What we know:
By secondary structure, the chain is α/β, with parallel strands linked by helices. It is built from 33 helices and 23 strands. A hairpin with a 2-residue loop joins β20 and β21. The longest helix is centred in the first third of the chain and has 21 residues. It starts with a helix and ends in a 5-residue tail after the last helix.
Amino acid sequence: MRIVNYCLNVLSAGVSRLLVRSKVLPEKPTEQYELNSKNPTFYIVRLNSRFDLAALARVCKRHGLPDPREQQVLGTQRLDRFIGIENPPPLIGDIAKPTNALAQGKQIIDHLLSSGQKDVQVIPVTILWGRAPGKEKPGLSTLITHSLTPSWFRKLFVVLFSGRDNFIRFSQPLDLSLLVDEKADVNELPQKLLRVARVHFRRQKLAATGPKMPSREQLFNSLLASPTIKKAIQDEAKAKNISQAQARQNAVKLLNEIAANYSEAMIRVAERFLTWLWNKLYNGIDIKYTEQIHELTNKGHEIIYMPCHRSHMDYLLLTYAIYHQGLVPPHIAAGINLNFFPAGGIFRRSGAFFIRRSFAGNKLYSAVFKEYLSQLFIKGYSVKFYTEGGRSRTGRLLPPKTGMLAMTMQAMLRGIDRPISIVPVYIGYEHVMEINTYLKELAGNDKKGESIFGIFKAIKNLKNYGRGYLNFGDPISINQYLNDNQPNWRDDIHPTDVQKPQWLGPQVANLADQVMVKINNAAALNAVNLLAMILLVNDKHALSKPKLLAQLDFYFRLQRDASYSNKVTAPEETPEQLLTHALKLNKFDVISDEFGEIIAINDKEKTLFNYYRNNILHLFAVPSLIALHLFREKTTTVSKCQQLIAAFYPLFAKEWYLRELDEDYITRILANFVDQNLIELDGDNIHITNTNDCLAKLDMLGKALNFTLQRYAIVIGFIQTSNGIEKAELERESQVLAQRLGTLHGIKTPEFFDKKVLVSFIDNLRAQSLITDGDAGLIGSVQLCETYMHLKALLPARVWQSISDIVQGQCK
């Protein structure tokens, strides 16, 4: 028997070397989990399979981990390191023999109890062959998938067809001391160990492959049988005076328009194509904070990804990143404008479901879509949608559209028994493919629809776009959010007839704002947006290389010591390395003379660079305001800085979706200025270090807010110098004056005179009660008057004069 086992092990190892290619997560398990190869080590897996053992052995050798094929000495015993919970079923028959996992678990726990040894590593390892979710009604394809526990014969086909798609995930070693320390029957501990492992593997498989997929026909039939859609079909027939059969057929057409048709085969093809594409387009994709997603999946959470929306590349980048983290790609809410040949079919088979821009006037469509979305959550699929609704043309976060989030929360009122968590995602680029198009649209050109010709043109123009950045923000548990903010929300749960409770709208709006805040909390600094921050505030958008490197170093140290958020990521390179990288992107000119090199933004890129600066401007809002105040006053106090921030931060927070201000944030900023020899701090008193170098650094940092403060001054000036002004007139006059300032002072930032931005600011003033409705129109508060005086002290005299010449008069 030993000879047979040896031969089978040799055979499986040989086949593994020839046919198997394993993807390992995390990429460095030894470092991730601080594994020690000298400690007693066991690997607990779901299936006691020789092919699994052979694949794991190769991976362990690669990472310097103990060989799972060898035995582990534990005290006076020699135990198999490889612990398979289940045996594969026999070739004939359905009942598999039990493994010795229970006995192994008992021996390990007995040793811990008797010896008190704490360094035993029991590592759960999930091993999957292919990542197809399987079918609700199995067919012939199950012969070559991992969805069933295969016999040795079926496993041969699995390895043959899916060996190149072997997936191995190491998990955090089980803390056996917690089990041993529990006041429980010692004899039950081995069973508990295996129960914990089984739950873990079930969740890991669900996270990697998703739930089993119904056929499209099964899905449609179940949806059409739901009471909600049945009633909508009846209403459709009555409203349009058509038969029930015709109304039902209309519902089927809508389902065909909406529903995804997920194909794991398409995902595999797309993964290979996208790997080629990223290598051609980008110098790398930086992905941060993925561990918190794995923590959620380990706890059985259903995940909703809510990213910001910069580019059509977002669809591909985020799905690709999620798949490479060993997680099932989410179903994606995509605009109906993307459902064009052939992209629509590819997107649909990659998990996209399509949504119209408006549901207005189509009750059947609304009912069908909401029921489809509910079914996705009920069945346990992860979902991704863009809360902004569309791509940002300015680089700022757009106000959230709450429709999808509202439908998500309504789906929860169907009584979904799993916790649901939102994962905000920040996406950034050193080059956005559509940025030239965005600029044209902001200038007044009509938005062009997507087409196959646009795809061919984009492929033709593929070039080096620098790096891409994807940061996962802090998750929000919707269940916990509702428990904290709407404790009685469960009273409205109904499995079929879900009404829209009165509390839904306000809670959705507040939750959507929290998502936007957490997206901005996880912003990524990069070469382009940092250089945009520096160069755009300088004359001719140019700066000598030494001054540029000094300012970069200033910003690096500022973000390190006084970062806006602990989720903000910064480049690991030195300022010199970062500049060298940036110059390769063909966005800058290097001008040399006898005094050295000057770095300047290319003429064609100058307006576009405002987009990249807007990606991170919120990170510098408070430091910039303090720097501007210091530069103007030269001598001030900590108290005055705090008063200034208190006046402006609520305006910044609403415009840029900022988190609540930390009490020590201003203190940390001032401490950093002291460390960088920019100021001297004597108790409450602040004195600027009056050297040219320090003045220049503070001046450049302070100028980052110039356009924002000028926009504020325009709107507030019209309010303060009138006895009341109608909102429509305020919007119109503000836009005209903004355009005039743009002409007088060479301002080419598109959002400076964008009516939507001005309207949003006016609405923000009203929401904070800084303006109220009077008999003659909008009037300002005393607090607004104080803000206006702050603006006068902060803005350059020539700019203030241009504004006051138009608005006439001063605040009394």
